[in-house]
Automatic annotation (TrEMBL):
A motif ('KMSKS' region) lies at residues 238-242. NCBIfam families: gltX_bact (TIGR00464). It comes from Pelagimonas phthalicica. It catalyses: tRNA(Glu) + L-glutamate + ATP = L-glutamyl-tRNA(Glu) + AMP + diphosphate. One of its GO terms (molecular function) is glutamate-tRNA ligase activity. A motif ('HIGH' region) lies at residues 10-20. InterPro entries: aa-tRNA-synth_I_cd-bd, aa-tRNA-synth_I_codon-bd_sub2, aa-tRNA-synth_I_CS, aa_tRNA-synth_I_cd-bd_sf, Glu-tRNA-ligase_bac/mito, Glu/Gln-tRNA-synth, Glu/Gln-tRNA-synth_Ib_cat-dom, GluQ/Sye. This is Glutamate--tRNA ligase. Coiled coil: none annotated. Residues 3-305 form the Glutamyl/glutaminyl-tRNA synthetase class Ib catalytic domain. It is an enzyme of class 6 (ligase). The keyword Protein biosynthesis applies. PANTHER family: GLUTAMATE--TRNA LIGASE, GLUTAMATE--TRNA LIGASE, MITOCHONDRIAL-RELATED. The lineage of its organism: Bacteria, Pseudomonadati, Pseudomonadota, Alphaproteobacteria, Rhodobacterales.
Length: 469
């Protein structure tokens, strides 16, 4: 059985678009789930728009998403000689021809066609010309497209697509300066790289019909095609800046975990029954083109956040801490100190079930990241009036002898509340304000255990005395 080989082939003209990231993911899942290869090709033939910075952004985006590719990334531009070689081979076979028509000739043909109400697809007078009539002038090389019949695309997503050959022009393969066009380069590269499955956006569906002509003329096996619908915004219109972030790196900087992003993007246009939340291993096992819908998928931030929250909750603490450190670097936040890292790692067990993004988690971890004096915010300060400070002053000595286990802390605090004729909630407000400087925090017991005895008592004393300890 032939090994499955897929590829992702972005143009390095900007960031890694969210739609491109999903295409890469689909190809990665398809190959990885079948023991195949996933290749990366940078389609940098547009020299005016391709930049090293954009290539770097694509590689970084894929690295963050965990979409590892096999072998080195291939530069399409670097393979130009090979593309020219194939064009010359097609010329030698009689499957392509030299066309000496100028832009003026082509425009005159089209004006006449428009006036007569016939097809404006250019029909070159040089298609079957005798080489002895060739002028000493610049020419392009065109593919001889069949003039009757139809091209049939057997697409794994779109089904059988039929395109009349009369609607296809004789595509240019080499420009007049002998440089290859993108449409030729794609086919040659896919063939030479052994690509068996081409999974890409359905905006390339018409390209497939034209590219198949090169495969056929060269006697090459066609890949399996799967043209996937585009991604729309919540309003059903093509995803654009007005809907929010478009580049993958923006999602990393907003604090979405990579595993959650993979899960959500996989679910965007593909389904496996009613499963919304799944692991990478499940996605690799389940993913197939039969689960891809024909309609455009709609990007939904609430669903993304919901799935990301579930992934944060199940992620191993050490891996989660590492990803938070990476997020802070990308978001331009200061590095964590050793003490902050240790406390945050110790606190993850009581934070990760309640956060959908890393900024949310970091906000909940505020108590663990404070170094120095706790400065209560406006809401928390209301819980530190003179009565509350008196309560903390009375409580602190009783905590001095606590063993600092959860059971012991619960016993001491509950007994204190009871002895002072108050409900525990009345005690919790000042404790939250003293320990975290916030009114909404993880449980008081969790915070005290994470901070440890010394720091907890320091903060309670400081709050009780108004900082005059």
């Amino acid at each position: 059985m032939t090994q499955v080989v897929t590829r992702f082939a972005p143009s390095p003209t900007g960031y890694l678009h969210i739609g491109g990231a999903r295409t890469a993911l689909f190809n990665w899942l398809y190959a990885r789930g079948r023991g195949g290869k996933f290749l990366l090709r940078i389609e940098d033939t547009d020299r005016a728009r391709s930049t090293p910075e954009a290539t770097e952004a694509i590689l970084k985006g894929m690295d963050w998403l965990g979409l590892d590719h096999d072998g080195e990334a291939v530069s399409q531009f670097a393979r130009a000689d090979r593309h020219v070689e194939v064009a010359n081979e097609l010329l030698a076979k009689g499957a392509a021809y030299k066309c000496f028509s100028t832009q003026e000739d082509i425009e005159a043909f089209r004006e006449k066609a428009r006036a007569e109400g016939t097809s404006t697809h250019f029909q070159s007078p040089w298609r079957d010309a005798d080489p002895s009539t060739f002028p000493d002038a610049p020419f392009v090389v065109r593919l001889k497209t069949p003039q009757d019949g139809e091209t049939v695309i057997e697409d794994e997503v779109q089904g059988i697509v039929r395109i009349k050959n009369a609607n296809l022009d004789d595509m240019i393969l080499l420009r007049s300066d002998a440089t290859p066009v993108y449409m030729l380069a794609v086919v040659v590269d896919d063939h030479d790289m052994g690509v068996t499955h081409v999974i890409r956006g359905d905006d390339h569906l018409n390209n497939a019909a034209r590219q198949m002509g090169i495969y056929t003329a060269m006697g090459w096996d066609l890949p399996v095609y799967a043209h996937i619908p585009l991604i729309h915004g919540p309003d059903g219109k093509k995803l654009s800046k007005r809907h929010g972030a478009l580049g993958v790196e923006e999602y990393q900087a907003m604090g979405y975990p990579a595993a959650g992003m993979r899960n959500y993007l996989a679910r965007l246009g593909w389904s496996h029954g009613d499963d919304e939340f799944f692991t990478d291993d499940q996605a690799k096992e389940w993913f197939g083109t039969d689960g891809i819908g024909k309609s455009p998928a709609r990007f939904d931030f609430k669903k993304l956040e919901n799935i990301c929250g579930q992934h944060i909750a199940i992620t191993d603490d050490a891996a989660l801490l590492q990803e938070i450190v990476m997020y802070r670097a990308v978001a331009g936040l200061p590095d964590l100190t050793d003490v902050q890292s240790q406390r945050l790692n110790a606190a993850l067990y009581c934070l990760k079930d309640r956060a959908k993004t890393f900024p949310e988690l970091i906000e909940k971890a505020h108590f663990a990241l404070i170094e120095g004096a706790v400065v209560p915010d406006e809401k928390a300060a209301k819980n530190l009036d003179s009565v509350s400070r008196g309560i903390l002053s009375s409580l602190t000595p009783q905590l001095q002898n606590a063993s600092w286990s959860r059971d012991d802390l619960e016993t001491v605090l509950n007994r204190f509340a009871e002895e002072n004729g108050m409900k525990f909630g009345k005690l919790a407000g000042p404790l939250r304000a003293a320990l975290a400087g916030r009114a909404a925090t993880p449980s008081v017991f969790d915070m005290m255990l994470v901070l440890g005895k010394e720091t907890s008592l320091e903060r309670l004393t400081q709050a009780a005395t108004g900082g005059d300890s």
